[in-house]
Amino acid sequence: MKKLFTLCMIGIAVAAFAEPAADVQVAGQGAPVDDVSYSFGAIFGVQFADSGLSFNYSDFAKGFKDAVEGNLSLSEDEALNIANTAYRAALDKKNAENKEKEAAFLAENALKDGIVTTESGLQYRIIREGTGPTPLATDRVQVHYKGSLLDGRVFDSSYEDGEPVEFSLFEVIDGWAEGLQLIGVGGAYEFFIPSNLAYGEDGAGSIIPPYSTLIFEVELLSILEPDETQDDAEDDETADAAPPDDIE
Questions:
Q1: How many CA atoms lie within 13 A of 106 on its CB side?
Q2: Domain boundaries defined on the chain
Q3: For residue 242, what are the contacts with CB-CB under 8 A and spacing of at least 6?
């Protein structure tokens, strides 16, 4: 069966775990048919959990059963059409809600004491002023940081990893590149980075949804000496890299 292009991860997950049904039932070695059935349901459920779609579970199970047994009441093209249309509608609705939440948060946050909004829309507050120099857009720096979403969920943290990170400013998202140039060495700021200065309408994998404002607590530990191996790095296509590692 053709995969829904919007749901291709499901096909990949299913292919990775698929076994011939007869073999599973006969072998039953550490994977009884009940466990296998539940696991396949879980794989599909994980993929759909944040989709915004609603399901009639009995019809979902019937569709799965009919497909396995070659007894579909719809053609594959009809099923693909219906599923894609529903998925896109749910995604559009969710993205619209995310945009509204982001706009409301930024408008309210801008009015709080200590919050500064730059011309680009970046918002920040000073946790601790630095006493050293501020980096340039071409500099390489060492920082400690913690990144979270508006719901408070931490998606990345050098503190949890146990060591600071090093990167060049041109390697990170626009919000970081701009914000770090405001901090003196030894300082710590909190950034509120709008989605247009971060991952925009695409988000970043399953971790950062589309239209997400990112909240970062950042300590600038040092500005590093130029690395000769970095001389030609500005020519690389790294301007949209994650701070500081790619988020998958």
A1: 22
A2: 5-92, 110-235
A3: 172, 173, 204
Which contiguous run of DSSP H or E holds residue 85? helix 76-109
| Residue bearing the bigger pLDDT, 204 or 13 | 204
> Of 13-22, 90-99, 120-129, which one has max mean pLDDT?
120-129
Q: Which two tokens stand for residue 220?
A: 């600038």
Range list of β-strands (E), the chain: 116-117, 123-128, 140-148, 154-157, 165-168, 188-193, 214-223
- Catalytically annotated residues: 145, 155-156, 173, 199, 216
**pLDDT score, position 41:** 84
Residues 246 and 248: their CA atoms lie apart, in Å, by 6
Q: Which of 41-45, 86-90, 121-125, 221-225 has the highest mean pLDDT?
A: 121-125
* Sign of the CA dihedral running 118, 207, 151, 245: negative
Domain 110-235 class, CATH top level: alpha beta
Q: What is the pTM of this model?
A: 0.71
